[in-house]
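Regression test case RT-17, inverse folding.

Input:
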């Protein structure tokens, strides 16, 4: 057995940071060696300061670690970031300058020219732009980003259809759970028995990020997809799981059975966090439902159902995903797996063979 690869968690006390820790407890490749949080938490034992929100118990190996601040020297080359967008941008950039690989769940760098916005099963070719990021910025580390949690669900749901039949228009209404707002999230007096028909920045993220995800990588550039998207986002009183009501049209007209066939044949990658089948389709029109259908494939499977004709576009369908796992921490870990498995971690050194500052922390994999 090869030794496990060390990873660090940025924003370790938050909801996404805690999810990273829970998912990595039994990971076959990775182990946590650094936990990073705010200056107020730095120097304290993790278990004494964190308000643990996961259903599984906090395991002692991490619980007994001492928290480091965002300017500490870290031993892990791979850093999984669950930092709040208000502070993530500069901190993540700082760590790349020190040679770290930052895989970010924050929105700050998603639309940067040379930063890949990646779901490995959808657009793994975009990892190639990492090389250009290293060259352009003269950094020994780099940033890779996850899309917004609703975009994640939308992209996986529609990609097998788009790949074969070319989607050209999308209307999507999201019903987003309160866990997507972090902790403590939305005040109970605002959300109980209620729907909030606005989530700041969400519609803009859906209408832009999907175009980058579905874009083509060519000649050191990502050419955005030409799709018209209209999004409406709502916060609903559901604990976990974002539900999307999607209408779409395609350039090449298709039948309902062709859509279902494309969905059911969408396969995962041979990586620990990628499920064998990415989408579970239900014939029952009352499915999927967030109370019952967010845990397939350890939370990494998207559930879909209720396909029917649309009188405005061509088709409409319902999609559901686990926003904290597939929509956040789980895909960040999957991105780390892809980077290691395809040896992107040393891309700067390979492009600059005369450099004497090469990082080799990951050479054990």
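Golden output:
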């Amino acid at each position: 057995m090869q030794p496990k690869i060390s990873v660090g968690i940025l924003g370790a006390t938050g909801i996404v940071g805690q999810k990273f820790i829970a998912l990595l407890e039994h990971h076959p490749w990775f182990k946590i060696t650094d936990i990073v949080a705010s200056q107020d938490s730095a120097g304290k034992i993790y278990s004494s300061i964190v308000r643990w929100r996961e259903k599984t118990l906090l395991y002692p190996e991490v619980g007994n670690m001492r928290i480091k601040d965002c300017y500490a020297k870290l031993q892990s080359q791979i850093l999984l970031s669950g930092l709040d967008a208000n502070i993530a941008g500069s901190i993540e950039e700082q760590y790349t300058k020190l040679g770290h690989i930052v895989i970010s769940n924050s929105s700050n760098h998603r639309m940067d020219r040379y930063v890949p916005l990646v779901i490995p099963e959808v657009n793994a070719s975009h990892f190639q732009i990492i090389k250009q990021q290293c060259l352009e910025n003269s950094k020994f580390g780099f940033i890779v980003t996850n899309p917004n949690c609703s975009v994640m669900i939308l992209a996986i749901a529609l990609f097998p259809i788009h790949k074969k039949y070319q989607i050209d228009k999308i209307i999507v209404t999201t019903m987003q759970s309160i866990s997507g707002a972090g902790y403590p999230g939305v005040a109970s007096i605002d959300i109980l028995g209620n729907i909030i028909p606005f989530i700041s920045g969400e519609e803009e993220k859906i209408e832009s990020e999907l175009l980058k995800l579905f874009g083509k990588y060519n000649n050191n550039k990502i050419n955005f997809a030409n799709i018209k998207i209209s999004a409406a986002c709502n916060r609903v009183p559901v604990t976990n799981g974002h539900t999307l009501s999607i209408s779409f049209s395609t350039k090449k007209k298709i039948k309902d059975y062709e859509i279902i066939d494309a969905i059911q044949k969408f396969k995962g990658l041979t990586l620990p966090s990628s499920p064998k089948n990415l989408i579970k389709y239900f014939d029952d029109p009352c499915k999927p439902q967030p109370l019952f259908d967010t845990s397939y494939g350890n939370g990494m499977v998207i559930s879909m159902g209720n396909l029917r004709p649309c009188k405005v576009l061509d088709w409409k369908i319902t999609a559901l995903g686990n926003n904290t796992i597939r929509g956040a921490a789980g895909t960040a870990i999957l991105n780390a797996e892809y980077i290691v498995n395809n040896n992107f971690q040393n891309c700067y050194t390979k492009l600059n063979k005369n450099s004497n500052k090469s990082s080799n922390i990951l050479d054990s994999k």
